[in-house]
C-alpha cells in the first residue's frame, strides 16, 4: 500500500503563490493591452472625423455657420468634442501657393478645444481672421505656411486643404504615466 506524501498544511499554497506572482505580470499586461486597444479604436474614429471635416471644408462647407459645425459634430459620434470645447480640436486650413516657393494660409477654422493643440504647419494670428475664418493680411509673417512646404510644395495659385485633428487620451491614463498624450491625425486635399 502506498502512502500519500505529507503536505504539512500546504494545500493550495502553490496556487496562491502563482496568483500573487502572476498578478504582478498579468495585470500590467492586461491594462496595457486595454489602453492600446481603446487608443486604436479612438484613432480610427479621429481619422474618420478628420477626413470627413477636411473633405467638407475642401468642397466649400462654411464652418462659420452653426448648422455646418453641428453637422460635423454629429459625425464625431462618441468623441467628446463641442463647438468650442471638449477633449478634441479640429483645425482646418486653406493653403495657397504664392509662386516663390512659399505658401500662405488664406482661411482657417478651428472647431473644438483650441487650447489643446495648435497647427503643426501654420498658425495665423487670431487678430488676422475675420468672422468667416479668412486671413485678412496675407503678408503677415504668421500667415506663412513655411512648414507646409516641407510636406507639399504648391505652385502659384494652387490650393491645398489641410485638416489636423487632435484628441486627448487622458481618459486612458489609469497609471498616471501617460500625461499629455493624445491622437493626432492630418490629411491634405
Descriptive overview:
The chain is elongated. The longest helix has 46 residues, at 13-58. The chain is built from three helices and six strands, in the order H-H-E-E-E-E-H-E-E. It is of the alpha+beta class and 189 residues long. The chain has one domain. The relative contact order is 0.17.
List keywords for this structure.
189 residues; alpha+beta; four-stranded antiparallel sheet; two-stranded antiparallel sheet
Overall geometry? elongated
Distance between the termini: 84 Å
DSSP strand content: 15-25%
Strand order of the largest sheet: 4-3-5-6
Order of helices and strands: HHEEEEHEE
Count of the separate structural domains = 1
* Biggest beta sheet attributes: 4 strands, antiparallel
Fraction of residues in helices? 25-40%
Integer-rounded radius of gyration: 25 Å
Compute the average pLDDT: 89
Number of extended strands:
6
Number of helices: 3
Query: What low-confidence regions span 5 or more consecutive residues with pLDDT below 50?
Result: none
**Structural class assignment:** alpha+beta
How would you sum up this structure in a few lines?
This protein is of the alpha+beta class and 189 residues long. Helices cover 32% and strands 22% of the residues.
Write the layout of secondary structure elements.
Elements: H1 13-58, H2 66-75, E1 81-82, E2 85-86, E3 88-97, E4 103-112, H3 146-149, E5 159-168, E6 182-188
Antiparallel strand pairs: 1-2, 3-4, 3-5, 5-6
